[in-house]
Fold this protein.
Amino acid sequence: MRMRRRPLLAAAVVGGTAYHIGKKGQQSRDQQAQIDDMQAEQDQQQQAPPPQAAPEAAPAAEEDPMAKLTQLKSLLDQGVLTQAEFDFQKTKILQSM
């Protein structure tokens, strides 16, 4: 039986080593893929044109607040305004009512 144990032990060592190397290789490939994805996302963000500033409306005599809010919401939906900018402008409009 001793002769039989050594080949099994050797096969177990070889198999375990191969498994470990394969696992480490896959982890390395996964990390590289994540890095590549992040770099591609950064490149895409750098190539995108900067968001346009919201057009400054000339102060009109008694402009409808609901129309202003609707316009702000459309600018938010288009990505021209950030959520923080939208909230700030909305608060100003609502306070002026």
